[in-house]
Design goal:
The complex is a heterodimer of chains A (210) and B (296). With 210 residues, chain A is an alpha+beta fold. Chain A has a single domain, classed as Muramoyl-pentapeptide Carboxypeptidase, domain 2. Chain A has 4 helices and 12 strands. In chain A, strands 8, 9, 10, 11 and 12 form a 5-stranded antiparallel sheet that branches. A 3-stranded antiparallel sheet of chain A has the order 1-4-7. In chain A, a hairpin with a 2-residue loop joins strand 5 and strand 6. In chain A, helix 3 packs across helix 4. Chain A starts with 21 loop residues before the first strand and ends in a 13-residue tail after the last strand. Chain B is globular and about 65 Å long. In chain B, the strands form 4 sheets. In chain B, strands 2-1-12-11-10 form a 5-stranded antiparallel sheet, with helices on both faces. In chain B, strands 3-9-8 form a 3-stranded antiparallel sheet. Chain B folds into 2 domains: 167 residues, 3-Layer(aba) Sandwich (Beta-lactamase); 123 residues, 3-Layer(aba) Sandwich (Beta-lactamase). Chain B has 9 helices and 12 strands. Chain B is 40% helix and 18% strand. The two termini of chain B are 28 Å apart. In chain B, strand 5 and strand 6 form a beta hairpin. With 296 residues, chain B is an alpha+beta fold. Classes of the chains: A alpha+beta (210), B alpha+beta (296). At the A-B interface, loops of A face strand 4 of B.
Chain lengths: 210, 296
């Protein structure tokens, strides 16, 4: 982790002296945030199975801090929180909140980047997006902070079968347990990006008491 | 009470001008080889109005981007969007025919700036600018995806502009085109929108001015502006596919109030001379409107 991320703003409940973001309990947030984030609530996936949404989040005080915080050697926090006008209004301004499992995703993507040997680009709306985002129809791991839509790797745009299937295979070989969307147009498939996710992982930091 | 001689004279001049214009346009139409031509004119300076086949429906081509621009600014007026709100640039859209996905081919789009931003985000005002000035189809579908066709049509209704405009889908939806599900316009329909914009009555004078500023940035100037003097400023939107070529805009000249002009044309595929015909009609109208009535 670079020196630029070692500013200890709001250490809060977080034990790590080098990780700069405060952990917050989503249930303690103001009502408009709770309504948008739905911390700890159940949400059904595409197959009707209930999934429990994250309750604990890192608080991102500003875009400036998102630009500085390294989640992995080649991944800064801002890359995971780019959402457009379809995100719920309170979640488009700072402070913003991202599930604690986002760090696990970053580590996986770093490993993936090593395997492909070049830059891995996460698309807008393709990192963390809340359950209130207009794209979030059913429980999607994007709302757990454990999914990424990758639209470009190096100079290769992932907008065709060949590119998507090639890098999908590398992801599955490199990251045990990772899930990738098959290539295709119907719901549940992807044809203009590589979707990979870790599933519905909940991360509860050690010092959380409740 | 009888009209004064001056009023009678003005009305006569106006009628004479309209008759002369019709005659000239008919002549251009015959010589052009076009299948159909429609013209709608409203001159704020002289109050002259012309409606030449102005209620005939045409495939809208890219002129539909003017009603979409209105829909975007309606969302801004309602506070649902900000000019700097960001939109994910993604080249994947669903056809109105069975929701089948399609893309805007970059080779068929005259704008590369929006295609170059795929995967990233662009601001609403940037997309609106590209949608109009270089007629970006990708920007158009992205904006329509944000506001929704229903909301855009609702805006037209609320502004009493729905007559003469049929907004049914985004652009480049080939499946819809094959099934004849198209955006359609009449010359009068587009004229009413442009008159409202020129008069500053769309939402607010400030928002109307912003839309006019975007229309002033038009980069395709082979139609209405082509044979006008250099001092003319034209805020306009063109539209062209294999079978139609249109131009619709507001013409500003020094020392007179503007005139609003819509020229819609339909052609057999492969027939040339489209822009030349639109420019000829525009030039004829310019000459007649700027001619001293006493010279007639």
């Amino acid at each position: 982790m670079s020196a630029s991320t070692r500013f200890a703003e709001n250490a809060g409940m977080n034990e790590s002296p080098t990780f700069p973001l405060r952990v917050v309990d989503g249930l303690s947030l103001p009502p408009d945030y709770r309504k948008a984030l739905r911390p700890g609530e159940e949400w059904k996936d595409l197959n009707g199975f209930p999934r429990q949404l994250p309750r604990y989040f890192y608080e991102i005080p500003s875009w400036d801090s998102a630009m500085k915080v390294e989640l992995a050697t080649h991944f800064l926090l801002w890359e995971f929180i780019q959402v457009d006008v379809r995100e719920a209004p309170p979640l488009r301004t700072f402070p913003r909140y991202v599930p604690c499992a986002i760090t696990l995703l970053a580590v996986c993507l770093e490993r993936f980047r090593e395997a492909v040997g070049t830059l891995v680009h996460i698309s807008a709306n393709g990192g963390y997006r809340s359950p209130s985002h207009r794209f979030s129809k059913n429980a999607t791991p994007h709302a757990w902070g454990t999914a990424a839509n990758i639209y470009r790797i190096g100079d290769t745009y992932l907008d065709n079968r060949n590119a998507i299937e090639r890098f999908s295979l590398i992801a599955r070989e490199t990251l045990p347990g990772i899930w990738t969307r098959p290539y295709g147009a119907p719901t549940g498939y992807a044809e203009d990006h590589l979707h990979l996710d870790l599933g519905y992982v909940l991360s509860v930091p050690r010092d959380v008491k409740s | 009470m009888r009209p004064s001689p001056a009023v009678t004279k003005a009305a006569t001049v106006s009628t004479d001008r309209e008759r002369a214009l019709r005659h000239q346009i008919e002549k251009i139409e015959k010589e052009s080889g076009a299948k159909a031509i429609a013209v709608a004119l409203r001159d704020v300076e002289s109050d002259l109005a012309l409606h030449y086949h102005a209620d005939r429906w045409f495939h809208a081509a890219s002129t539909i981007k003017v009603p979409i621009l209105l829909g975007v600014f309606a969302a801004i007026d309602r506070g649902e969007l900000l000019p700097h709100s960001r939109v994910h640039v993604r080249n994947r859209f669903l056809s109105v025919v069975e929701n089948i996905p399609f893309r805007v081919e970059s080779g068929r789009d005259s704008n590369s700036a929006v295609h170059n931003a795929i995967g990233k985000m662009m601001r609403v005002d940037e997309l609106a600018y590209h949608m109009i000035t270089t007629s970006s189809n990708l920007a158009t579908n992205l904006l329509l995806g944000v506001i929704g066709p229903d909301a855009a049509n609702q805006t037209l209704k609320e502004l009493h502009l729905e007559k003469g405009i049929e907004l049914r889908r985004g652009v480049e939806d080939e499946l819809a085109f094959e099934k004849h599900i198209n955006n359609m316009v009449t010359a009068d329909g587009l004229l009413r929108i442009l008159v409202m914009l020129a008069e500053g009555k769309a939402f607010s004078p400030g928002l109307s001015r912003r839309m006019m500023d975007i229309l002033h940035g038009q980069e395709f100037n082979q139609g209405i502006p082509a044979r006008l003097p250099k001092v003319a400023r034209v805020a306009h939107k063109t539209g062209e596919i294999s079978t139609v070529a249109h131009d619709a805009g507001v013409v500003y000249l020094p020392k007179r109030k503007p005139y609003v002009l819509v020229i819609l044309t339909e052609w057999d595929p492969g027939v040339s001379g489209r822009s030349r015909t639109i420019a000829a009609i525009s030039h004829t109208i310019y000459e007649l409107l700027t001619q001293d009535p006493m010279d007639e």
